[in-house]
Input
Amino acid sequence: MPVGILRVCLVVITAIVNHPLLFPKENGTVPENTEEIIQKMKEREESLRLEQLRLEQEIAEQEAAQKALEKAAEVVEETKEEKVRWDMWTALSMVIFLLIEVWRQDFQEGNWQDTGGEEDDMAVLGKAFKGLVFPDKAVLASFYEKRILGTTGDMARMREMVEGFADDLLEALRSVCNRDADMEVEDCMGVGSMYENWRVRKPFVCDLIVPFAPPEPYCFRSQIWCSGDSFPPDEQGYGTIKVCRADEDVTGCICDKTKLGEDMLCLLHSQANTTRPSSEMEDLLCFKNTQYLDADQVMKWFQIAVTKAWNRISHKYEFDLSFSLLDSPGALKIKFRSGKSIAFNLTPVVQYENSDVYFISHFPRSDLAADLPSSTHWFLTFAVYERRFIQLVSKTLPANACHVSCLQILSFLHGKQCSLTGPSGLTNYHLKTVMLHLLQARPSQDWAPEKLEARLQDMLKFLEKCLHEKKLYHFFIGNGKVPAELGFPIIFQRAEPLNLFRPFVLRRDIYRKTVDTFHEMLRNTSALINEYTVRIPLAHTNGIHKESL
Output
């Protein structure tokens, strides 16, 4: 019962509270507020719709801009690819053009003699001179005995006399030099044809090289073209020599190889250490304001020192000594009272590291040789190793082998032809290089004395081939087959081969003159040899086979 009464009371109270007339002011505005809210919701919905449209428009614009950028990037990439393809085709076209031009020049050079006559139709030995009879074994043997051996018998006495005098002269040179300031001169060494026993043309000239070193505390540090740094083609075969203090480390710092800025300082080498008075470096025979040894300064110093040395010992000898050639600073001549004379070359050199390769201050020039890049560039000579190689190979050849005889005959023929038609680009060094290559290529038994004729023809064919191709490689540089017994520096064996005939590519006038002289020598071979040969009975020659070129 009480619960039912409570429920009735709650219903009555709720009805009274929710009656619309109980609060007339508050409840009277409900319809108006509802319409306002609805209006605001509509306005809000419109603004949101407009905002959505704006955002959609911005997104569309951004997507359009992104697509434009992507398209532009694709266009740029395609342009780059087209440019790369164009550059590649341009480079390839240039290479093809250069190859065609080189081929055209070689073709012209190989056929420029076509207008000269029927004999000059071909440039390869065996075709251009087909039909020429080559002197046979008997004629060559007679020629060699009469012309070669008959005129070279006194070379040993001449070498002994020149070496003895040179030793005395250098000893006097050491005595007149200041041991604390001047270069230190070592003993001389004989090189070249006189000491390899194949010199045939008079006057006989001994070639002596004189190694020298700087006074303490200085030393020489050399750099060659194949040491890793790039050298221009015209500087291949050369090197530079830097004068440094013995305690100076020039290998671990690049401050002397690059230009540092004005506000940069090498922490290893201060300005006081790297800069020396120019007078001090000039006293060390360096090029002006550098540390590089100057070949011209060295030759001037050496000439003055030799003159002083001769003045000290001249009273001991009954002859005069003088410098014989202005263009050969080391050329000396001994003049006897009888009118006879002896010529020899005394040339200062610098040893390359601990090898028998030397930087030579002056090298005999030829029409083919290019001018030195500068007086700080020194040519490298391998003459000591060449002499050793010939001696080493000679031990494995048959008795009285014909390799030296072939070189002597070829040198004689070339010298005689040059005396008739003028000098050419070929030198005796080229002829010796041909012999060295064939010595390495052919087996030992092929150099037996009875094969003189065949080996001489081989040398002529090899030389003709080299002239035709304008390629005669230096025997040691780039040759990985040099005998290990020689102890030859590996850096030169791994270097790129050095073409001794490279100047022929640049000097076409000298090349044509050289080829002309060589062809003329081949035509005149029989006449030149027969001129110095004792007549041989016809019955003796009929049994000997004649080989023709």
Notes: The chain has a mean pLDDT of 79.
